[in-house]
């Protein structure tokens, strides 16, 4: 195969990228997107601040642009993200208690209903666990509505869009550590109690290498009966090409690793300004890391 998407499809997987609606009129960007990738994530356009800027008033213009571009070009879409402690509209940041709880559940239901039947997988909850050694939940306005907020969100998303796979997504969870183990325990509990969860996303914002137990960590989650996906991959540093190959091989070695998404197309598109962590240079040329991925797929 000569493109990332076609190469991934050889093993039944996808190769995706984050897309910004504002770049869909950049022909270099769109040419690479259309040629190389078969899965799309909206980089910002489906987040809470973008979709519900005022309480109860939903705005889907830019999210729909990305969704329609993807579907019209034969690509699938990962929805990102229904609930997250960041990129909340100001009005939600000022709520608490049952008022916030009602608002967040309504948000999940409304957005998942708008996109019903069109989303491969939703990041229902993003980044809810604390960094460091506690293995516990992150303090946030969402967490303060009650420890059951994550399962309530998953149940609401399932009711609104029964066809979408429902994922939990986080960062610094790429190896076996306290944070990933806290999430592992939550997923195990959800599966035991019948809370609807289908997949776990590993953002994989990396520097120079993946943890040595990266594959083993993916596998232990897969062994719980969920799909695993690499959802926001970008790798900075001089060992970039080797690290991209290692991440690719790890996913291919785990049967339930269903796909990889890089967090942007060209280095100039990356949120990691100045770190050049992506597969295409700022002119849109393939980098060594691109070839390394294509050869590993
Ligand atoms: C980032 C976007 O890339 C930026 O454009 C935005 O300013 C901030 O958010 N984890 C996530 C993503 O789940 O949504 C974040 O995306 C990067 C970290």
From TrEMBL:
Statement: the UniProt record of this protein carries the keyword Plastid: no
Domain GH10 positions: 1-296
GO MF term set: endo-1,4-beta-xylanase activity; polysaccharide binding
Taxonomic superkingdom: Bacteria
Enzyme Commission number(s) from the entry: 3.2.1.8
Active site per UniProt: 232 (nucleophile)
Protein name, per record: Beta-xylanase
Natural source organism: Saccharothrix texasensis
Residues of the full protein shown: 35 to 331 of 467
């Amino acid at each position: 195969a000569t493109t990332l998407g076609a190469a991934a499809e050889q093993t039944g997987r996808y190769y995706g990228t984050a897309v910004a609606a504002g770049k869909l009129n950049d022909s270099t960007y769109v040419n690479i997107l259309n040629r190389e990738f078969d899965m799309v994530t909206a980089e910002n356009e489906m987040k809470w601040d973008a979709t519900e800027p005022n309480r109860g008033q939903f705005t889907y213009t830019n999210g729909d642009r990305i969704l329609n571009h993807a579907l019209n070009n034969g690509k699938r879409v990962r929805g990102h993200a229904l609930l997250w402690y960041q990129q909340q509209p100001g009005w939600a940041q000022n709520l608490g208690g049952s008022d916030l709880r009602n608002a967040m559940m309504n948000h999940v239901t409304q957005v998942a209903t708008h996109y019903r039947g069109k989303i491969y997988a939703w990041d229902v909850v993003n980044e809810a666990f604390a960094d460091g050694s506690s293995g516990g939940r992150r303090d946030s306005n969402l967490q303060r509505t009650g420890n059951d907020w994550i399962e309530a969100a998953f149940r609401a998303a399932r009711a609104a869009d029964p066809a979408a796979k429902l994922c939990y997504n986080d960062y610094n969870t790429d190896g076996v550590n306290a944070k990933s183990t806290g999430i592992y325990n939550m997923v195990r509990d959800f599966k035991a109690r019948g809370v609807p969860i289908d997949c776990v996303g590993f953002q994989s914002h990396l520097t120079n290498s993946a943890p040595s137990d990266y594959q083993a960590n993916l596998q232990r989650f897969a062994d719980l009966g969920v799909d695993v996906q690499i959802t926001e991959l970008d790798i900075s540093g001089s060992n970039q090409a080797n690290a991209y190959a290692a991440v690719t091989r790890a996913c291919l070695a785990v049967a339930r690793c269903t796909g990889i998404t890089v967090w942007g197309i060209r280095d100039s598109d990356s949120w990691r300004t100045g770190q050049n962590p992506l597969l295409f240079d700022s002119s849109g040329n393939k980098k060594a890391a691109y070839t390394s991925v294509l050869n590993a797929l």
